[in-house]
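Section handout, structural biology tutorial.
Before the tutorial, make sure you can parse a SMILES string by hand: atoms, branches in parentheses, ring closures as digits. In the record below the ligand is fe (ii) ion, and the chain has 232 residues. In the tutorial you will relate the predicted structure tokens back to the input. Do not try to memorize them.
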Amino acid sequence: MPAKEDLFTPIHKALRSMIYGLSTRLQTNDFANVAVSTALVTDLENNFAAARSAGCVLCVLSQHATDEETVIFPSAARTDGGLVGQLIEEHHALTRQELAIAERAHALLKLGSADERVSAGIRLNQDANELFAAYLAHMNREDTELVPAMQQRFTDEQMLGMRGRIIGQMPRDQLFFILGWMVSSLNVTELTDLLATVRQGAPPPFFQAVTELCASKVEPARWAEVTARIGL
Ligand SMILES: [Fe+2]
Ligand SMILES: [Fe+2]
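Predicted structure of the complex:
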């Protein structure tokens, strides 16, 4: 019987929500306004070189690919080398797009006139749309091709070990930043399962911190349903 663990779908839901939110901000931003544009660019690519910084969307997208390549792909490549090789190629292309967007965003803020910034903002939005389209297609490929392949090849315990390694190497601020997006992006059943796993496997203070995060991030009706299901 295939395993049930899925290392990709929950984090991809979080990344999709981040992408949708940033995309909305990008296409409605007034690039003539320096203050709001600076805030937007900061969230987009703040400290891009330090890819572990929390709060930067491009950093999180980049770090996610690194986590996959260092923890998951080496094992998956032993049996599904062709697919993993293609996914790594896609990572490289995504990185090139991310770096170009980060450069373009920086350059935009240095422009002297509102008209120039508005023109550059149109191009930035178009480039971001291309990146997001490619990133969404890439995640879908991992969900639809790699998840079932890994469920055939690995046990749930092996995959939980991989997830534990990714979480274990994340600084706490980054972990809670991503968890905040994840818990607000999961459906009731997924969130109930996630909390049951955390309650079973993590120290009580960590479980407490995650439930407090959920209370502040998850839509209230959904959170009420989850707390009823897990008896909080
Ligand atoms: Fe990936
Ligand atoms: Fe991924």
